[in-house]
Input
Amino acid sequence: MSDIDRTEEIRELKASLEALLFVAPVASTPSQLASVLDIPESEVETGLKLLAADFQERGLRLQRHAGRIQLTTAPELSEVVERFLGLEITSHLSRAALEALSIIAYQQPVTRPQVDSIRGVNSDGVMKSLLHKGLIQDIGRAEGPGRPILYASTAEFLQHFGLASLDELPPLEVDQDGGTHEEIRD
Output
């Protein structure tokens, strides 16, 4: 295959992936995209990486969450997009909300009592607010007494903070005694 043919093949792959992600009603898996395009999943992954690089200079991003990928607007443009759509600006989160959200993001899945234990205060109101804003979600129930609800972050959380995946979360800070919040939970 000539370089020109390969360049055209890559251009067509990126265009096809972009079109599929644009019309997809929900986030898609790479295997779903590969099936529709009748190509190996590894080629889809290559195309997605190239497409993500192209989007860095534009107003769109590819966002991965829970093994799925979707086309989103660039997080740094959220204010102008929200204003255009007439939505309430959601950029402000209280210190308590940020604290609970960071616990959930790093410890997920986690129960409200676990969040309360780490924070040292009741988190009912904060958790309701985070659920209402779509930054966290109920993903099931924990085994054990009372079967408390398990919470995890959402794709909206990733978009709000400009992350492509949870892997982009900064490392946990180490406390003065050398421990992390993860050790507090254990």
Summary: The first helix runs from residue 3 to 23. Confidence is low (pLDDT under 50) at residues 181-186. The radius of gyration is 20 Å.
